[in-house]
Each structure stands twice: as C-alpha cells, then as structure tokens.
Write a structure and sequence with these properties.
- The structure holds two protein chains of two kinds.
- Chain A is mostly helical.
- Chain A has one domain (30-105).
- Chain A has three helices and two strands.
- Chain A has helices spanning 15-49, 51-54, 63-105, and strands spanning 57-58, 61-62.
- A two-stranded antiparallel ribbon of chain A has the order 1-2.
- In chain A, strand 1 and strand 2 form a beta hairpin.
- In chain A, helix 1 (15-49) packs antiparallel against helix 3.
- The two termini of chain A are 31 Å apart.
- By secondary structure, chain B is mostly helical.
- Chain B is built from 27 helices and no strands.
- Chain B starts with 7 loop residues before the first helix and ends with a helix.
- The chains are: A mainly alpha, B mainly alpha.
- At the A-B interface, helix 1, helix 2, strand 1, strand 2 and helix 3 of A face helix 5, helix 10, helix 13, helix 14 and helix 26 of B.
Chain lengths: 106, 592
C-alpha cells in the first residue's frame, strides 16, 4: 500500500500537536477516573477496615447500603457532567490552538 | 398444565407487550432497510429519544429480574452489579467513546480492522462477538423461561425458553426487530414504568426502603429485631419467618456476605479467614463489570446515532441518569422479597428468587384484589420487554457477524446479495437454536451471575483492545490479537468450568447431565482461592491481556501501522478540524 507521507509542515499534523492533544485529553480522563475509582475501590476497603462504622444506621439504611445502593449514582453523574463540560471546552481550545499554530507557521 | 391457574391480567399485559414490540419492529424495519439507514435515521431524533434508546437496549433480563433475585439471595454484595452496570458507562465515556466516535468505526470488528489495516484481525475480533453474545443470551433465555413458567403455572422451563427463542428468532430472520431507535426507546420507558410503579405501590403498603432494611438486623444493632411472625394482615407489615436456606440477617445486610464468601466457607475457613477472599472477590467483580461495560459489542454502535460529538456527550449524560435511576429500584424488590416472600428461598431454578420481581406485586391481592394482578402483569410486561429487546439485539449482531464476516468474507467471498440474505436467515435460525439449547441448560444458574460472566469475558478481550489501541500508538496487530485472544479465552474457559461444576450440583436433570464435573467441586473445596479466581476471572485476565499486548507489541515494533500518527490524530483531534475526511481521502487514494 503506497503511503502518503505525513505533512510535517502543517501544525495540525505535527508530532507536537498530537502529543499535546493526547496528553491533555488523557489528563482530564485520568482525573475523572481517579475520582470515580477512589470511591469504587475505596468503599470495599472501608467495608473491610471499618465494618462497624459502615454498619451504622442512617434512616434505616446501613451506611454501606446507603452509599452503594443510592448515593453512588448521583456521585457518578457529577463526575460525568464535569467531564463533559471540561471536554467540550477542551475541544474548543484545541481548535483554537490548531488555528493559531497554523498561522504561526505560515 | 392447569389453564385455570392462569391470571388473565398478567397474560394480557404480557401478550400486549409482545405484540406491540413485534408490530413496531416490523413497521420500522419496513421504513429503514439498510445499516446506513439505521444510522442516519438516528440522526434525526433528539437527544432524549436517543438516550432512551441506548438505555432501552442496555437494560436486559439481568437488570430487570436478575438483580432483584440476586439481592434477595445474597444481599449487600449483589448491589455491586447494578452500580457497576450503570457506572461502567462512565469508564466508556472517559476513555473510549469519544475517540471511537471520531474514528467512525461502527462496531468493534470495524475498529479492529481500521486501526490495524488488517482484515485478518477483523476475523479474530469477530469471534468474540459470538463468545460474549452466547454468554449474554443464556441469562436472557433463563429470564424468558422463568417468566413463561410464572405466567403459565406448570409449564416446563424449557418449553418457555423454546417458545420465546423461536418467536424472536423467526422475527429477526424475517427482518423485524432491527435496532430501531423508536422501538428501543419505548422499551426503556416500558421497563422504567414496570419497575418503578409497582415499587411505589408496594412501598406505600409495606413501608419505606429504609424501614424495610431496618427489619434486617446488622451486627451493630443493639436492639433486637422486630418480632417475626407470619401474618396475613399486611397492615402490620411484619416480615415473615425466613426458611433455613435463607442467609442470616447479619450476613445478608453486611458487605462480604454469602456471595463473596461462598468459596471460602465451602473450604471450611472461619469468618475472619474468609474476609480477604471476599475482598478479592469484590475487587475482581468490580473490574469485570466496569471494564466489561466498556467492551460490550452492542453498546458502542449507538454512539453514532448522534449528529455530532457534543450531542453524543449530552446523550451519554442522559443515559447515565436514565439507567442510574432505573438501577435504584431492582434491589428494593430483592429486599421486599426477602421480607415478605421468603418461600422463594426454598425453591430453585425458574421457581426461585429470580422470579421475585414478577411475583411480589401479587402479595397485595389480599387487600387490593385485582390491583395485585395488574401490577404483576406490569412487571411481566417489563420482563418481556427486557429479554426480548436484549435477545433480539444480540441475535442481530451475532447473526450479522456470522453471515457477513464468517460466511460473506471467509467462506464465500463471492456470494451474491441474494445468497447473503438467505444466509442471514439461516444464520439467525442457527444462532437462535444454539441460544435455546444453551438457555435450556442453565435453569439452575442465576440470571445476574451469568451476565456478569459475559462482562468478564468482554473485560478481558474487547476492553484491553479498545483502551490500548486508543491510547498507545506502539500497539501492533500481533500484540492486540495475542492479548485479546489469550485474556478473553482464559476468562471464557474459567466461566465455563465454573458453570459446569455448579450445574453438577443441581438436584434436577442438569445434575445428571453434568455429573462428570463433580470432581471439580471437590477441587474447589480444597482450593478456595482458585475457585474465586475462576468464578471472577477479571482481576487476573484483564492485566494478563494488557500485559501480553505490551510485551508482544514491543517485540514486533516493525509492524506498527505506518500511518499511526494520522490514525491517532483522527482518534483524538476535535471533529471540527476535519481530519477524518482527510484520512478517508488518503485511504481511498491509497486503494486506487
């Protein structure tokens, strides 16, 4: 298959742009994932280390049940909402960066 | 079979759901003939409808019936299932959905081929559509058999499986039931209505969620639990006595209960000794469900039915809200079933806790008469919506994989369109037949547990493939294939072994059929750790898969696709930059 050599003169196609792009996206995703994984893996650890505390009653629920059966969902919605707002903003910024970069080079 | 025992309310609600679903499928199938029609059609609908459609496709018999059954049987630990089913979606959103949408690959095999320019790899990737698909259809079939056995008392389980399997297979083979947005969206609202309305009625009769939980004593509760008496007077809302088979309150309501300690208990370990095993089990379950959601073959495709990336993201937000709200309800059924329908503990198979969602509303018959039947009819309708939508969706994608990829590309690449159409029908019959056979075998297994296994296989095969291909440009086709095949097959074999050994324990006909696997159960007793790792394989098979991908890719650096930078740009650069069009043009240029 004949290849089209990447057009390195163009900023959008440069290594620099791609690296920055992936890095920023990954940083945002990893930040959100960390907030999610903290609760996801933290809850079993809390259940393991502090069973008495997690068995305390809150309105009939045990604390462990209340967190996992009810509160977990809104927590994840907040993370998702934040991610969506930030990633849309990030895309706008990327389009701007790409346009600026091209102007600088031409 | 005794026809006089059939409740006409339940029968008619179920029949209406079946007829409406089939009719809508055919009507929509007439107006949209090809796959591209399906995608374009989706673009004309709003974010709300689209989000409903995604949610409708996602909520299967496991969500509707299985979770309640498992919560009733195992208590707190089973709550991980609904939470991870809903929250796994976040993982998909964070790491995979955006890039895949930009890349324009409609299915995972499409992505595998496009990312590595390799039709061979596509063929490998297609196998897992079938593997995961069959594991996912088994619990749907159990849902079908259970529901029909409930509607027609005395009907053998396998007859229900065969009837539902045949009806849906015929429907798919004749061209109805394609993944039409409208049908799926309506299915979501049927399911949501069917799970929530009965719950609100039941909670108003029997007291709130928290109150019912407080009837189950935890280790910390100083006061003794309320008196337990079997009572007909529902005004008192006293719970019924638990049979000996039911787990004790303390174990049921607390983390690390019957589900996660089973293996360690069988090995005779003490409560303290078994706790680390339970923690390991829980972690492995979480990994399977969260990563598995991101690797399910039938979920990704719907991300393309949005006009642009921003709409896709908004849709995802709504999907998470819609399925999140749904998943609050099934555990409530499980809890009420424990308190007020404990006789289910003594039954097994299709008569056991998996039918709690269907039967529970009947309890209020004593006081409210026909309302109980109506509510039970509504939950049955929801169950039909659940297993019909998921089974037909799976059947379409599995048949497509067989007919287009295996037959159309591997066996007879030169087949005419008519031959392909005929083959599609035969493949549908074949896949439907195998699903019915498998479904008839699994009556003793829990619905929700089996869906969890399908997730574990997806987590060890497709998830690493997607995740690594999107974020690491050093991946090669050899690395991706080795990792995906090894990890996925290991998870598949573990799941199959565990199921075979569980079936060997059955008292019914399945026990005799699988008696050869009884030796395994002795092995599990001696090796509880291995049992847990086989029952929940994700914690070792996902790292194994990713590790192999890295090692093999590092060993074959020469085969990294030459235009990998362009591919990565397409995956990550904002759609507004138009790199996708450029990429397509380059590829077309290269092909000529």
């Amino acid at each position: 298959m004949p290849q089209t050599p990447p057009d390195d003169t163009d900023f959008i196609h440069s290594e620099e742009f791609l690296r920055g792009l992936m890095k920023r996206q990954l940083r945002l995703s990893v930040t959100c994932a960390t907030a999610f994984l903290l609760l996801l893996f933290g809850l079993p650890v809390m259940n393991y280390l502090a069973p008495d505390f997690m068995a305390r009653r809150v309105g009939g629920f045990t604390l462990a049940w209340l967190i996992l059966g009810v509160l977990f969902f809104p927590y994840v919605w907040i993370i998702a909402k934040w991610f969506i707002v930030r990633s849309i903003a990030l895309e706008h910024a990327e389009v701007g960066t790409a346009a600026d970069g091209n102007k600088r080079q031409s | 079979m005794d026809f006089s025992k059939i409740d006409l309310w339940i029968l008619s609600f179920s029949a209406i759901t079946v007829v409406v679903t089939i009719w809508m499928g055919f009507r929509s199938a007439k107006t949209s003939k090809s796959a591209s029609d399906f995608f374009v059609a989706g673009r004309s609908v709003s974010v709300g409808w689209n989000a409903s459609a995604i949610s409708g496709e996602y909520l299967s018999a496991a969500s509707f019936m299985g979770i309640a059954g498992m919560v009733m049987l195992s208590g707190y630990d089973a709550l991980w299932y609904p939470v991870c089913y809903a929250c796994g979606y976040l993982f998909l959103l964070l790491f995979i959905a955006g890039p895949l949408r930009r890349f324009g690959a409609y299915t995972i095999p499409d992505f595998a081929e496009g990312r590595y320019d390799s039709p061979v790899f596509r063929k490998i990737a297609v196998c897992f559509v079938l593997f995961i698909g069959f594991f996912y259809t088994m619990p749907q079939m159990k849902g079908a058999g259970t529901t029909l056995a409930y509607i027609f008392p005395g009907l053998p389980y396998w007859v229900g499986v065969a009837v539902v399997g045949a009806v849906i297979t015929l429907n798919v083979a004749l061209g109805g039931m394609k993944g039409i947005t409208l049908v799926q969206a309506v299915q979501y609202w049927i399911k949501m209505f069917a799970i929530s309305v009965p719950i609100f009625v039941l909670l108003s009769v029997y007291g709130g969620y928290g109150k019912n939980l407080s009837l189950n004593k935890s280790v910390n509760d100083v006061s003794s639990p309320p008196a337990i008496t079997r009572t007909v007077d529902i005004e008192k809302t006293e719970r019924l006595a638990l049979p000996a088979k039911a787990p004790k309150d303390e174990a049921w309501i607390a983390p690390f209960g019957p589900l996660t300690t089973k293996a360690a208990k069988a090995a005779g370990l003490s409560v303290e000794e078994s706790r680390p095993y339970s923690l390991l089990y829980t972690f492995s379950l979480i990994v399977a469900l969260v990563c598995g959601t991101a690797g399910l073959p039938h979920i990704l495709v719907r991300f393309y039915t949005n006009p642009d990336g921003i709409a896709a993201k908004k849709t995802t937000m709504w999907v998470m809200i819609l399925i999140g709200i749904f998943y609050v309800f099934p555990p409530v059924f499980g809890l009420l079933g424990r308190n007020f329908l404990p006789e289910l503990y003594e039954a097994s198979g299709s008569k056991g806790p998996d039918k709690v969602v269907l039967e529970l509303p009947m309890l209020i018959r004593q006081k409210y008469g026909v309302l109980g039947s109506i509510l039970s009819g509504i939950t049955c309708a929801g169950a039909f919506a659940a297993f019909m939508s998921t089974f037909s969706g799976l059947l379409v994608s599995m048949t497509g994989a067989l007919a287009h990829d295996v037959y159309g590309r591997m066996l007879r690449p030169g087949a005419s369109p008519q031959q392909r159409m005929r083959m599609f029908k035969w493949c549908a019959v074949l896949v439907g037949g195998v699903s019915v056979l498998l479904g008839a075998l699994v009556e003793p297994l829990e619905i929700n547990f089996m869906v969890g296994q399908a997730f574990a296989i997806a987590a060890a095969s497709y998830f690493p493939l997607l995740f690594m291909s999107v974020w690491w440009r050093g991946m090669t086709m050899a690395g991706a294939a080795t990792g995906m095949l090894t990890g996925g097959l290991c998870a598949l074999v573990s799941a199959a072994i565990v199921n075979a050994s569980t079936l060997a324990l059955d008292k019914g006909p399945m026990g005799k059929l699988f008696a050869g696997f009884n030796g395994l159960n002795e092995f599990w007793v001696a090796h509880p750790l291995l049992r847990i790792l086989a029952e929940q394989p994700a914690i070792w098979s996902v790292p194994l898969s990713i590790g192999l991908m890295i090692v093999v890719s590092k060993a074959t650096p020469k085969t990294i696709p030459s235009d990998v930078r362009m591919k990565m740009l397409v995956l990550h650069a904002p759609e507004a930059l138009g790199l996708k069009q450029e990429y397509i043009q380059e590829h077309q240029g290269a092909a000529h």
